[in-house]
Amino acid sequence: MTDPVGGVGSTPASYTATTSVDRSDQMGKDTFLQLLVAQMRYQDPGNPTSTTEFMSQTATFTQVEKLEEIASQNASLLSLQRSLSAGALVGHTVSWTAEDGTTRTGSVSSVRFSGDEPTAVVAGAEVPLGRLTEISLPS
Which family does it belong to (predicted)? Predict the structure, then answer.
């Protein structure tokens, strides 16, 4: 039998995964481009930036753009995978931890896709997928 990990005051913790990361402590491609333009604008005319160095910086900028594209595509794939997994729950018996800390069981009648996380509808109650503790085949 699986017991949920309790948080402060023995209330089960609930976590939601996000599909994007915003970090204010890291520079993005816009900052990189601004620095590159400023470097070109204020370079010493008697000793300009070498072609090799400029190409290296341009390649780095391209890498940053492509990595952002990959991160966006991964977020889309994760969202699609969540939707497919949620849809596969219809008809299955699930157990979850209710708000009051009790374990409840029921059959998933449908799945709703509103907000960040899909919710399973069990006996009229909407249950976030992150609260599910057990999934079993229908009997």
Answer: Belongs to the FlgD family.
Tokens coding 60: 């780095």
14, two tokens: 């609930």
CA distance 26 to 124: 44
What would the CATH number be for the domain defined by 53-139?
A: 2.30.30.100
Please tell me which residue, 36 or 113, carries the higher pLDDT value. 113
Look at residue 83 and tell me whether its pLDDT is greater than 60.
yes
Mean pLDDT of the residues in the chain:
78
Q: What is the pLDDT of residue 40?
A: 76
Q: Which of 95, 123, 85 is nearest to 1 (CA)?
A: 95
135 or 51, which is more confident: 135
Domain residue ranges in the chain:
53-139
Query: Mind giving me the DSSP string for 62-120?
Result: HHHHHHHHHHHHHHHHHHHHHHHHHHTTTT-EEEEE-TTS-EEEEEEEEEE--SSS-EE
Question: What token pair was written down for 107?
Answer: 């059959």
